[in-house]
Amino acid sequence: MPRVSASENRGAVLVTGGGGFIGGHLVAELLRQGREVRSVDCKPLAEWHQLFDEADNHVLDVSLLEACREAADGVSEVYNLAADMGGMGFIEGNKALCMLSVLPSTHMLIAARDAGVERFFYSSSACVYAAEKQQTPEVPALKEADAYPAMPEDGYGWEKLFSERMCRHFMEDFGLETRVARYHNVYGPEGTWTGGREKAPAAICRKVAEAAQSGSGQIEIWGDGQQTRSFMYVDDCVKGTLTIASGPRVEPINLGSSELVTINELVDIVEGIAGVELERNYKLDAPQGVRGRNSDNTLIRETYGWEPSISLREGLEKTYAWVSEQVERELAGRST
Fold first, then answer.
1. What is the model's pTM?
2. Average confidence (pLDDT) over 60-69
């Protein structure tokens, strides 16, 4: 993992959304590197995905400006991951809630500016890309310039694109060093795997594990299974986040795998890991999102000499093992 040099390591690091999936993994890596970390989330501590005693943990609602000021006080860097979001089922059914994430995005920028924060990282999303460029499964990989002319995913995508522009203008007008990464479909252990906010890899792992452990022999797939995506393992996401946050100034940049697969191929891999073959029932009226989406990694390779490289098979083996354990505990009536 990239490290912050001793000359730059002058203060604490704030991670908003630290009780979430990606935030928890980011906090873990920063602590491993010996950083002083303040982790903030609006959920009660008992509901955090990962909780570390070594971190300075706070339950704060960073949609409120005063909470952002409290969170940013005395820190030198901010990683703003706070957002109300989930998988496609949640995003398509909660557009207003997704757009309200503009409050933590905007208020954290104000608080960081006023607190004299040296560097501000914002986690954007591939949902900023124009829908017309994602209409076929054989979609060309999305380049950063494809976000304009703007027609992002309704709700969540518009909020992310607006907040990207806020980061740009806070850098131009106020001198706050901002960095923006567009995350593409992050997955891995310790993530949301049930309840309606889970994304495709976790949902497929759960469904396969449930079928394998119950003996049902069937799986429900949203859509026809031919829609395509690329999926980035969380370790690559954390490494890329730290690389971009400490790197040279660039426009918003893709952070995602370029390994494009259909949803059917995703199911094939998980079935192979689980050692089962299931009858597939396709729910054609379920939320599916765009028809195809992939990450063009030219800019991240040219800028940093690196791109996400953990294969989907390798990442899913670790993810399925963790999700399967949660399913087993749930079926046994134990708390997860």
1. 0.93
2. 98
